[in-house]
Design brief:
Layout (H helix, E strand, L loop, with lengths): L11 H16 L2 H33 L6 H4 L2 H46 L2 H5 L3 H43 L2 H48 L1 H6 L3 H53 L5 H43 L20 E11 L2 E11 L4 E5 L6 H8 L7 E6 L2 E2 L5 H6 L1 E4 L10 H6 L7 H10 L3 H5 L18 H15 L3 E5 L7 H14 L4 E6 L10 E6 L2 E6 L1 H7 L2 H15 L1
Parallel strand pairs: 3-8, 3-9, 6-7, 7-8
Antiparallel strand pairs: 1-2, 1-4, 4-5, 9-10
């Protein structure tokens, strides 16, 4: 897959980088974390106390006759046994409750930070990536944060604490070999699990990549549902999707087979250690070195220890998987925005705003030059049009003015200020655009209009719709402004989508207006109706009109003819016609086509 979806090294250094990225968010909740750790210790001490109380009960039963045993066993031991069992559950649940806010709030803050960073990245970053795969990486990464915190606090740390305490008890009360063998078993188990998991992690990465690719293909196909139907390519899309699924299937099978290998090895290690310790304990009982209660306690300790240890193997594997998923999400944070605020970070005064393209050069790539020495000015309150064939670089001018990209030569100035020295928020607030391809949110008409200025009042939204000649259409809808427009606005016509885009921009009320083929989706009658609204909208605004239909630019103060990224003609409509050049030729051709239609 292109761009970000490359395999990341599963190294300890990378894991620690991921954990260090997470640490500051947890530090903000250090008191909750400390409280959770204290409750964790109490829960494990209570859990360790269960075998100790069980030993005392068994020893008392073993030294007493069967008929009088229950009478001799102190009731306090039985009550202590039950209380310890209950305390283990109580402290565990209290730990969960105390730590819940820290885990969920940290997850929310990190995910939100990554989401904001994605919006701050350049247009080039998003053009080079597939949205489906990107959203999948964000989803898996945010889910993995909560999982990792739960694994660390609720599984790994409690088990490590219990191992240390149990080894200490075995070292004090029994022969040193009991503690040594227990510790050796645990160490071998951890080393084996770590090594095999490191070997397996590449299979997880491959599976994730295949999953992201398959998801991207599915999302892309469903978004373009109508195109698929137009060309009858349902079977082709299914085969393309299945090809990605087969890659995922192969990686998943390899992942599961290697998991079986890991589980078998873990079972051999735990079983060997447990058997050896039980043999040693049984011999100690026979020789009278330890009591039957000690034997029961050792057995209870080991079972109580090895059961979570066996589960810890699964947890360790999942921790590695979550770290891999988090690395992919945090990797997004490593991508630096191509366009950043200037050191001065000035704000824009939007009164009497003029725009100047000063000998602008631009190339998307070093071998693909788009604009060559483009030089023109739009005085404050004036309207300048750029016309020319497709691919001549017209829409690139709008992208550069918005600073989706920075020029590779020359400068763009607003009121004399190089836009690279302005705050991008201030710059983009002052500019509004009606794009050629209008993309709407899968929400209501009202929401999509309000998007131009989220804090606008309802009356302002209604007025913007009226100016965009949209009010009559909305009145015919049963749900009115609450009508859902569908994915990318597919539930309404192209003309109505364009009107919503116009209303949205009018609501924003920008000082600088860009009309990028603003009426391209409208029929002639609708275009004339919209033109009157646009004429009112551009009044007293600095306006850049990007157009293919020359009929929409005849009233502009100046018209620039762009070909192959160069301005080849400039002047008013009448002046350009008089020159009998490219503009005049294109005008005659369009007039002829209009007459023929």
């Amino acid at each position: 897959m292109r761009g970000f979806h490359t395999e990341m090294p599963a190294s300890g250094r990378r894991d620690w980088q991921t954990l260090s990225t997470l640490a500051p968010y947890l530090w903000d909740y250090r008191w909750r974390l400390g409280g959770a750790m204290a409750l964790l210790a109490l829960a494990k001490l209570a859990n360790i106390g269960v075998p100790v109380s069980l030993k005392a009960i068994v020893d008392r039963l073993d030294t007493s006759g069967q008929t009088t045993a229950l009478l001799i066993v102190p009731l306090a031991l039985l009550l202590a046994y039950g209380l310890l069992r209950f305390s283990t559950i109580l402290f565990q649940e209290l730990r969960n409750a105390v730590f819940a806010k820290a885990a969920q709030r940290s997850t929310r803050r990190i995910t939100l930070k990554v989401f904001r960073h994605l919006h701050n990245l350049s247009l080039r970053f998003h053009l080079d990536r597939q949205t489906g795969g990107l959203s999948r990486d964000l989803e898996r990464g945010s889910r993995s944060i909560a999982q990792l915190l739960n694994y660390m606090v609720f599984s790994i740390l409690p088990t490590v604490f219990e191992i240390l305490v149990v080894c200490g008890i075995l070292l004090v009360k029994f022969q040193p070999w009991f503690a040594i063998i227990t510790l050796i078993t645990v160490v071998v188990y951890f080393v084996y699990t770590y090594k095999v998991t490191e070997w397996r992690i590449k299979f997880r990465v491959q599976m994730n990549q295949a999953d992201s690719t398959a998801n991207s293909a599915a999302v892309d196909s469903l978004i373009n549902y109508e195109t698929v139907k137009y060309f009858g390519n349902e079977r082709w899309e299914a085969e393309r999707f299945d090809k990605n699924l087969r890659t995922w299937e192969k990686a998943s099978i390899t992942n599961l087979v290697s998991l079986a290998f890991l589980n078998i090895g873990q079972g051999v290690i735990i079983g060997s250690g447990l058997t050896l310790l039980m043999v040693m304990a049984a011999r100690e009982v026979v020789t009278g070195t330890i009591t039957l209660g000690d034997f029961v306690m050792v057995n209870a300790f080991l079972i109580q220890l090895y059961i979570p240890l066996n589960f810890l193997g699964t947890i360790f594997r999942e921790v590695k998987h979550t770290l891999t998923d988090m690395e992919r999400m945090f990797g997004l944070m490593d991508a630096a925005p191509e366009v950043q605020d200037g050191e001065r970070g000035g704000t824009l005064d939007t009164q009497d705003t003029s725009v100047r393209f000063e000998h602008v050069e631009f190339a998307y790539n070093h071998d693909r030059q788009i604009l060559h020495d483009v030089d023109f000015e739009i005085p404050g309150g004036h309207k300048v049009a750029v016309v020319g064939p497709s691919g001549s670089g017209k829409s690139t001018l709008a992208r550069l003015l918005f600073r989706f990209f920075d020029v590779t030569g020359g400068a763009i100035r607003i009121d004399g200020h190089d836009i690279r020295e302005l705050k991008t928020d201030s710059l983009r607030t002052a500019i509004g655009i009606v794009p050629q391809d209008t993309l709407l949110f899968n929400d209501t008409i009202e929401y999509n209009i309000r998007y131009g200025r989220p804090d606008a009042e309802n009356r302002e939204i209604i007025e913007a719709a009226r100016l965009a000649q949209l009010d009559t259409f909305i009145e015919t809808l049963p749900m009115g402004y609450d009508t859902l427009v569908g994915e990318r606005g597919l539930k309404i016509s192209g003309g109505e989508k364009q009107r919503i885009a116009i209303a949205r921009t009018l609501l924003k009320d920008p000082a600088i207006l860009i009309l990028d083929e603003a009426t391209s989706s409208l029929d002639t009658r609708s275009e004339k109706a919209i033109q009157s609204a646009l004429a009112q909208a551009v009044k007293d605004r600095t306006t850049l009109v990007i157009a293919h239909r020359l009929s929409t630019v005849v009233d502009c103060d100046e018209i620039l003819v762009l070909e192959h990224g160069r301005i080849v003609e400039r002047g008013s409509h009448d002046q350009l016609l008089a020159q009998s050049g490219h503009y005049a030729e294109l005008w005659q051709l369009q007039q002829k086509n209009h007459g023929d239609s």
